[in-house]
């Protein structure tokens, strides 16, 4: 309804405004402007005057800038009494009577370290007879490339979960065992895979 009213009011308004502009422009065209032909035409000169310079005089007036002289080097000290004493402080090294185990922290060799451990998927077929928490002890070897292989189940609280635990360990990634800066096989790694039933 509002758009119909706007159309009824807008169309005649637009016709009136357009007609008024048309009549105004027609009146402007009909005027006879009288130009005064007696006035002199404006003369505009855009040629710039270039002054010639004498190259020889310009070169004579040029002076090179003088550079500051660098500061003199500091004087050398040849007086031996000016040198610091290098004797130091003499002290006895204390003795510690303790059996300390440095451990493997200073040893460049290292055992296989886990990098990526993907958690197992709880199989739906095992959910009806499972407890809230189940665990599977698996054993595997780590290759020099850090891959897991020869995966077997050693012990399990629910045999239905054995295959899911082994599939999970197949996708794990390890930092390989290093002996004398060379990656080697790490055999017999054992770990517990835990299954938690949510819900």
TrEMBL record:
Q: Keyword Iron-sulfur: yes or no?
A: no
Q: Which residues cross the membrane?
A: 7-29
SUPFAM superfamilies for this protein: TolA/TonB C-terminal domain (SSF74653)
Q: What is its subcellular localisation?
A: Cell inner membrane
Cleavable signal peptide: none
Name all TonB C-terminal domain ranges: 107-199
> Where's it mainly located?
membrane
User: What are the protein's UniProt keywords?
Assistant: Cell inner membrane, Cell membrane, Membrane, Protein transport, Transmembrane, Transmembrane helix, Transport
Q: Ranges of Pro residues compositional bias?
A: 68-77
State the superkingdom: Bacteria
How does the protein associate with the membrane?
Answer: Single-pass membrane protein
- Region entry Disordered, spans: 62-86
Looking up Pfam families in the UniProt record yields: TonB_C
Q: Which family does it belong to?
A: Belongs to the TonB family.
Protein name, per record: Energy transducer TonB
Identify the species of origin: Hyphococcus aureus
